[in-house]
């Protein structure tokens, strides 16, 4: 990413910005007395039983609000239906085909109770695991809330993942029930979610039932012993299900994400700390008020959707927009149309989407009245200054602030972002600006020494924060090794960062083997272990190269087994294999066939060299390379393609 010093000095003003205090004071207080600070903040939650201890920090495990009891579905619904929020809109939902649904808080409350009752009848109880494999339809947040109500631990699997990827997650979490839909709409096509769910259920003996939400009209075969229609299990149900009194640190959900291993890891989040963190950070970063119409465009299958489509807006009693389909269907103006139609005031999306819109031209948003907007946001990968400025000018009309929010699945909610809800900072396009209160950031060199401003190193977080993951599900060793071993006592996110002379933070991308394709996280190991699973492949190395729209694109170098020759057919076949074992997001931009992969003398694949070849950069130090011919060959394959 090119860094720029062009500072946007315009500070958003006007009645919308009612900052709640001085950023520096609040931040200082959160550093000097974290427990006092968080105890005060936690007054905003409704507790069934108050906590006894604010923080129990036994590195690397933080347990917040120990002894407290609460339920997140109660936070999101029950307490609102006792007030005037009851009849307020919780979700304006719109399907890809244009159908709409308006769900008030009361309606969400009724549905959540009924879905919880139906799950209970299927035998789901506190501590059970439930997998949710659903498109962006209202049933998804309702089931998440119903699980939270019962104390069942849910795992949402992104609907674009394949049946095999679903099976991997269902098996790891040990889900008793998979909840899916007959299918989903995507750019006018119907994708067969139910069939993928069946593939997973057949592979995973833990699965007892598949619940199917009727969404698309097409026929799906139902196994009478295993499959049930949601409509059937809801028939005649209209009852109140008392929310379970959950321990503050009881697990709420597991969300799988990519790391350095071939298998996605289950990030485990708890109840109270998570609930508090996401609600507070939403307030600080976007400054919503009770008239806000909030639209976070993320799919609920990712952490952004969990925290900022479902739970935080509901905790705060906000109105949200939820849209099922693709941003460019039926045309590239669909999102702008929706902003104008629903009077969206806060719009939160990804750099990938912004760059796609940029490519299509500013005339598309210019056709719509976007004057309802009061706050913008960005998430998922570094936003390049050009995209930031395009967003600021063409969507924000140079009037409103952009919150570039840096965070991760593991952090639960925003970690670094402008905070117009506290005090608007001047902005610099491409910088996520300053840490949230409670986030103690440092930039370290490889030896763990703090770097002076202006130098790039590893970002670390030196204090636990309430939204921090509880653990990696059933893998404490990986948890300790991934986040806590390199710089003991400090949480290691795995990103490069630079603090500039004004103490603004620039997040500069991953420092590890994680690739970000259109903001989606995937690891080289995951891609490699998928592709070597194909019988024609002997060895493979995955890397990425920069992509103008997607941020990064996947490149694979592959050696084939004897008996298979490189051909366009085998290339297409391997692409199909990746999509079938992982999902559409694993689609490579290019597959290069070579006879040798560059390796160190100890046999480690040197992806750094392949990446240099794939980007046309200089290869640099090759002194540890075992056989120089491998690089020449990779380069020749690359040149041939050009
Ligand atoms: O590299 C950072 C990048 O996304 C990673 C986390 O990915 P994931 O867990 O899938 O969560 C994405 C949504 C929170 C980070 O390690 N990332 C996320 N937001 C930003 C970012 N990089 C730069 N700027 C951001 N605003």
Descriptive account of the structure:
This protein has 642 residues and is of the alpha/beta class. It is built from 19 helices and 30 strands. Helix 1 packs across helix 2, helix 3 crosses helix 4 (105-121) and helix 12 (351-360) crosses helix 14 (385-394). Adenosine-5'-monophosphate-propyl ester binds at residues 257, 303-304, 379-382, 404-409, 432, 493-495, 507, 510, 516, 521. Adenosine-5'-monophosphate-propyl ester is lined by residues 257, 303-304, 379-382, 404-409, 432, 493-495, 507, 510, 516, 521.
Q: How would you describe this structure in keywords?
A:
642 residues, 19 helices, alpha/beta, disordered N terminus, seven-stranded mixed β-sheet, binds adenosine-5'-monophosphate-propyl ester
The portion of residues forming beta strands comes to 15-25%
Mean pLDDT: 93
| Ions, cofactors and other bound molecules | adenosine-5'-monophosphate-propyl ester
Number of strands: 30
Query: How many individual helices?
Result: 19
Our measurement of the CA-to-CA distance between the termini, rounded to an integer number of angstroms, reads: 24 Å
Spans of at least 5 consecutive residues with low confidence: 1-5, 12-17
Give the biggest sheet: 7 strands, mixed
Order of strands in the sheet with most strands: 5-4-17-16-18-19-20
Q: Which of globular, elongated, flat, extended, rod-shaped describes the shape?
A: globular
Percentage of residues assigned to helices? 25-40%
Structural class given helices, strands, pairing? alpha/beta
Tell me the radius of gyration.
Answer: 24 Å
